[in-house]
Amino acid sequence: MENLKTRKNKIEGNIGIAHTRWATHGEPAKHNAHPHISNQVVSVVHNGIIENYLELKDSQIKQGYKFTSDTDTEVIAHAIELAMQSNNTLLHSVQKAIKTFEGAYGLGIISPHYPNTIIAARKGSPLVIGVGKNGNYIASDQMALLPVTKKFIFLEEGDTAELNLEKITIYDINGIKVKRPIKTSKIKEGEVGLGNYIHFMQKEIFEQPQAIRDTLESRVTKESVLVSAFGHKARDVFKNIKRVQIVACGTSYNAGLVAKYWLEDIAKIPCNVEVASEYRYRHPLVLDATLFVTISQSGETADTLEALKIAKKLNKKIYTLCICNSAESTITRESDLTFLTHAGPEIGVASTKAFTTQLVALALLTCSIGVSKETISKKREKSIVEGLKLLPGLINECLLEEDQIKKIAIRFKDKNSALFIGRGTMHAIAKEGALKLKEISYIHAESYPAGELKHGPIALIDDNMPVIAVAPNDELLNKLKSNLEEVKSRGAQMIVFEDKDSKVKPMKAMEIISITSNLGRITAPIIFTIPLQLLSYHVALIKGTDIDKPRNLAKSVTVE
Ligand code: G6P
Fold it and tell me: Which of 79, 86, 353, 490 could disulfide-link 461, Cβ–Cβ 3.0 to 4.6 Å?
């Protein structure tokens, strides 16, 4: 709707700022929308949070400023305007004002007194400059600028920049002119378009075989994993570590949960996994010889970045590794070791190919740690590598089940809740399945380790609560089968995704979808993710939600 409004009111000009705001302060409403303007002299768009805004607001009110929004951003506009009143240039006013801000910001500022200039500034939030042939641009993320340029300058913490049509001048945190390199993005044109797909999420689900192939390329030989894929110091680092701490958010956190099983069971190294927003505030004990692993598609998630910074501050002797899909992101610059998932650009808010490539990266990490510490044999390493190479084919096989999954999706049309169950790594996959369903179809979905049902959630089961179970042919299969009986006898409608060899006993009101067979400990969680992604996608399609941009969510959450 807003789009239509801006289209109707055509604006003439060759300079402008705009921002899609993820509401942190104040409801999503016109008066809170960016840009915020002070006395018709300064206009500001802002990504981030100004934490001392109440303090600044009080003092600005005393100085006669009138506030028209509930946002924290408005104080930025007034602070710059105030500095301009003392005959400072726009650039100097920004440089002066930002010294008073606590918190995080990526800023774009214009003023009618400087009709050809945009000032940019960043601290804590990402900001990239696009160097174009016919103009220069700023954005929070290079993806947004790919339609206009492939050349980017990534601003450093505390930088300010002055941009006009001809020139880009950058200043560091001390206001000293600096040169920052121009980098050329390797992302190809077609990768950011929809092609023949209706939604990016759909496209990205179907891109998974290629994304995994790309992630494995040059990281494995015929029979072994190349530990150096994690950096030239990786082998020494992995030899010396005594534990792994994984920190991440959202889907990336779910990938970490799978890795915990692998790292402890296969590589024999203790592993903890925690959501970043908790870790950063709980004064954790950061022990020596920890490999601190962050997982992030964007590499810009504020909580994950902060958790990493805090861990490094608490113990300078830890080793840090990020598993990330964005080469130039802040997290890669903050980490000792980087492993890039080569998923390609992921545009749908609900993460799909980033997740399965993260799992591939974590499988390689498990193997690399095991090899470096000699906790896994050559034979095991070979079988893991061979299993990983089978993934693209197995996923393609799984995608063929789409029509069957489409039919099942209809059953969710009028449901308000769903329960996802699994055991072992499959609990993490059930959790990811539930997250996908709630994110894009707005159906309340929960996940439980199947063995925990009897301690509470079984009370919820009736014929209005579909239960989705993930049943690979592993050592917990018989336990899971007993759990299915328990659920069934409470009248649940069930959907079971099984390995062909699992042979789950058909029961009334139970739909069984056999996806493939002979999955191993590493391949199973990756493969069982696929039907759950397809299920959510088709439920959302039936419900008519905005699949690629679900309400209230953002692709990259750069505020805490
Ligand atoms: C947001 C996205 C999720 C994503 C999470 C973590 O909430 O909507 O899809 O999993 O952030 O993002 P990251 O980029 O750190 O993986």
Answer: 490
